[in-house]
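hiii so my PI (J.) wants the whole complex modelled not just the main chain, which honestly fair. so below is everything: two entries, each one labled with what it is. i double checked the lines twice but i was tired so who knows lol
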Amino acid sequence: GAGVSQSPRYKVAKRGQDVALRCDPISGHVSLFWYQQALGQGPEFLTYFQNEAQLDKSGLPSDRFFAERPEGSVSTLKIQRTQQEDSAVYLCASRPYQETQYFGPGTRLLVL
Amino acid sequence: SQQGEEDPQALSIQEGENATMNCSYKTSINNLQWYRQNSGRGLVHLILIRSNEREKHSGRLRVTLDTSKKSSSLLITASRAADTASYFCATTTDSWGKLQFGAGTQVVVTP
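here's the output for the full assembly
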């Protein structure tokens, strides 16, 4: 079946622009996670949704980062007033009730 | 901050050889998972070992877990060129199951 998809795959933004990154999880998966992966590093947790409820946003680096999942399926990660340090790959993962997370291909964000 | 640290940072081997990489972590865990990431692609789950397990096998993969030393190892036997990738260990410590990753081991397998 279809896996987790993310769009766009690549995004170039000028510093100060707002960006929106989309994640389409596997149908029926209750849990959805966002991670940020800097170059040469492992992914770092940003936020977690169970259905439409955002249960953990402790990893969001600043109040410029905002995530939503209004209908419990598609999720959007929004970054306002982008900064150069926001350049990274943003990974989305979904999970049914078991432990394994299924990752999307990621969105590579470059802020100039 | 990262929960885990992988060792070595990079590993270069020839096809047919075994590859071993280690992961150390800092706090008590629920489970530990290994993921593979190919260049330009997403993370693929390889294997999960629970905190009450000591060893697990999946195909050419063997994972061990030593909770007293807070460490795990991943062994890939009879490596192939297609095994070239970055390998990450990740732990879960809370009820949500959020993953805390190490910095990864880059493995290059040459024909």
